[in-house]
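Bug report (template v2)

What were you trying to do?
Predict the complex of my protein with iron/sulfur cluster.

What happened?
Run completed; filing so the output is reviewed.

Input:
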Amino acid sequence: MIDSDILKLIEKQVKTFNIPWVTKDFHKHHNPFRVLVSCILSLRTKDKVTQEASLRLFKVAKNSFDLAKLKPKQIEKLIYPVGFYRKKAKNLHNLAIQLIKKYKGVVPNNETCLLEFKGVGRKTANLVLGLGYGIPSICVDTHVHRISNRLGWVETKTPQSTENNLKKIIPKNWWIKLNTLLVAFGQNICLPVRPLCSKCYVNKYCKKINVISNR
Ligand code: SF4
């Protein structure tokens, strides 16, 4: 089991950094629909672009009923320039229709149901469950996968096996916030290329697997 003190050090270090917009927005609105939609928009997209596109979309589509009324072309215009905006517009339109047909317009709080939507993978499903519904789950994105391997917490090749292994070693009360912490940590300290190890609060606990750092 990973010592909570190590996680607390990471938490302390990221306190002054920006947290991902999807998390920030949830703290303001407490709305799983917004988590689901903005997480879909965020895939392969910078945080600032996700934020602006989500806010444009949420102005006209506050829920799945509003979203279903929009044509994919209208959604495209609202969410441009997020990555794969054409595909995402189609997926979001279908998602809204499915939500209404199967779940009375409400985002399901169930992994199997969430994974049935086109454009929703484990990362998005786990974020909706954890952040949106407070159900313990670990959302593994590129930062969580990279940092967990560098630290030596896991030795994995895929996000799915990282998720499975982290569940065995991360205390459950840290599961939901782990993604927010490691995204902020990965964007500011444990950078993808040349991480800032000399400034890192968990330096002495890190195995630095495959790490090249001269700072
Ligand atoms: S010591 Fe370096 S590689 Fe390890 S977590 Fe810190 S920044 Fe990342």
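What did the reviewer find?
The chain has a mean pLDDT of 97. The first helix runs from residue 4 to 14.
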